[in-house]
Design goal:
GO molecular function, one term: maltose binding
CATH class of the largest domain: Alpha Beta
Organism: [Anoxybacillus] calidus
CATH superfamily of the largest domain: Periplasmic binding protein-like II
Number of helices: 18
Order of helices and strands: HHEHEHEHHEHHEHEEHEHEHEEHHHHEHH
Strand content: 15-25%
Structural class: alpha/beta
Number of domains: 2
CATH architecture of the largest domain: 3-Layer(aba) Sandwich
Oligomer: single chain
Shape: globular
Helix content: 25-40%
Keywords: Signal, Sugar transport, Transport
InterPro entries: SBP (IPR006059)
Radius of gyration: 22 Å
Number of strands: 12
Family: Belongs to the bacterial solute-binding protein 1 family.
Length: 423
């Protein structure tokens, strides 16, 4: 089966959130791959989804800086406004031979797209001054193929951290929990009936994957669902028990909130586990809220968190590969990444940039940065879209008390694997 036909069979899912080099290759390669003769302009297309106005301004500034340093390269930015439809659009364009030269790729979607063969491996373009070792390893590894080659360089990321309401903690006389056992006890003391819950919970696999595997079980084995493993059930049961038995946890929609950051900002949860995206939201929407952040509590003495990351990748069919690489290398190099992440809306995947911007010591962002080195990246093989849909449907039913967790996950696993086998 050809790569493009194989690509067309992939199920489409929504995307979960989200140095300057001279390049390589000789004169012949430059002419072949679209760098152009001296004085000629080359247009490189860059596709991504839209962000808030500040993010769009930062991206445009970074692109303007790149064009100033590369006067022979123009960047045509194509913003696909609906993030949920982004991969739909990209796959359709790739199938039709009209894909952009460079585009965003979420780690969640990366394994399946890499396997189709439509992406250009980037290893041969890299020179020593690009400093691959500067990237946080889990984030870089997310864009490696089974062949060990790198198909994308991560542009930014977020991990998860514990956000806690300082005023509520002081009034309850409790300390910031360092373990999940401590968190459960603290949550009870912080709960005030249905007015304030100790913990706001997102009952979905994207937020719970690291917890699910904390007791030694595996959510996915050999590209099939294995989350009915008793060890996974054991790891997740306390989350369900906090909701049903302790009455100390709730999901946002149970208190009329749209998501965890809103639930926390409204004072309906004393703690939530959220990403970097919550910080600018809370600053803008709840500027008077006094809160702190901490690393996600440990389980059995082990640190764990999730990471969500997006890379710049190159279309293998691009006829402007040298120019496309120069763009990627600038955007994911130290200079371009510093500009893009300078306002804190996104965290830099390069350790040196995080240190230069002070995020590793920032009062609110330091716990998020600390988690990058040990985080579980939100991806797992080519069948994760099927697996996550079935997990989420049944886990929520258990969280709401409609059925036992073990039974719910057993049914979800069976359905997921039947869908995988019938692909």
């Amino acid at each position: 089966m050809s790569p493009k036909k194989w690509l067309a069979t992939i199920g489409v899912t929504s995307v979960f959130f989200g140095s300057l080099l001279a390049g390589c290759g000789g004169e012949n390669a430059e002419k072949k791959d679209g760098e152009g003769k001296q004085g000629e302009k080359v247009e490189v297309t860059l596709a991504g989804w839209g962000g808030n106005p500040t993010e769009q301004k930062l991206l445009q500034q970074t692109l303007d800086d790149f064009e100033a340093k590369h006067p022979n390269i123009d960047v045509k930015l194509e913003v696909i406004s609906e993030q949920a439809q982004y991969m739909d659009v990209i796959k359709t364009r790739l199938i039709g031979g009209e894909g952009p030269d460079v585009f965003y790729l979420d780690a969640f979607e990366a394994p399946a797209l890499i396997e189709t063969g439509v992406l250009e491996p980037l290893d041969e373009y890299v020179t020593d001054d690009f400093d691959i070792d500067d990237f946080e390893k889990p984030l870089l590894d997310a864009f490696k193929g089974k062949d060990g080659k790198i198909y994308g360089f991560p542009k930014d990321y977020s991990t998860l951290a514990l956000l806690y309401n300082k005023k509520m903690f002081k009034e309850a006389g409790v300390e910031v929990p360092k373990t999940w056992d401590e968190l459960r006890e603290v949550a009870k003391k912080l709960t005030k009936g249905t007015e304030v819950y100790g913990l706001g919970v997102n009952p979905e696999l994207a937020r719970l994957y690291h917890i699910a595997e904390s007791k030694g079980g595996k959510v996915v084995t050999n590209n099939k669902a294995s989350f009915a493993d008793p060890k996974v059930v054991e790891a997740l049961q306390p989350i369900v028990d906090m909701h049903l038995k302790d009455k100390s946890a709730a999901q946002p929609n149970e208190v009329g909130a749209g998501w965890g950051g809103e639930m926390f900002g409204q004072g309906k949860a004393a703690m939530v586990i959220e990403g970097n995206w919550a910080i600018p939201f809370l600053q803008d929407t709840f500027p008077n809220l006094e809160y702190g952040t901490a690393e996600v509590p440990t389980i059995d003495g082990k640190k764990a968190t999730m990471a969500y990351t997006v890379a710049y990748v190159m279309n293998k069919d691009s006829n402007k590969k040298e120019a496309a690489w120069k763009l990627i290398s600038y955007l994911t190099g130290k200079e371009g990444m510093k500009t893009w992440t300078s306002k804190g809306y996104a965290l830099p995947t390069r350790k040196s940039v995080a240190a230069e911007l002070g995020y590793d010591k920032d009062e609110l962002r330091a716990p998020l940065v600390a988690g990058a080195s040990y985080a579980t990246v939100w991806q797992q093989g080519t069948n994760l879209p099927i697996i996550v849909n079935n997990f989420n449907n049944q886990f929520v039913s258990a969280f709401l008390g409609e059925r036992p967790l073990a039974k719910a996950l057993e049914e979800a696993q069976e359905t997921a694997n039947k869908e995988i086998e019938s692909k």
